[in-house]
Specification:
alpha+beta; two-stranded antiparallel ribbon; 11% strand; TubC_N; TubC_N_sf; TubC N-terminal docking domain-containing protein
Amino acid sequence: MGAHELLLHLRGAGLDLAAEGDRLTVAPRELLTDAMRAAIKMHKPALLEALRPGAEEAAGCAAVGDSVLDDRIVCTDCLHFRPNGMQCRNRWVAGVPRELGADLATKPQRCPGFRAAAARHAH
């Protein structure tokens, strides 16, 4: 996943991102998962560039509202995802390797084994 896709994913998760010089601010912080933090850290320079005034329009990026209609998910939002080691605990159903890596874990995709992470707090 590139910086633009990550930016759309984070905004779709209810986060506001802003570039302040070489600082990246993300709010509300309580919505950040460990996987999101890792992806932000990995892509920080590209995120800062993507947040530069006019960068999204110049790149021809779709509006955030368009991404909400997309039915793809990312592994980092799944109950079966383990951020330590970037692992999928449901890899046989999902059809992915156990060790996902940051690119696959944050890539929008359709997964038959997906289960929303928010479900783990419902009990």
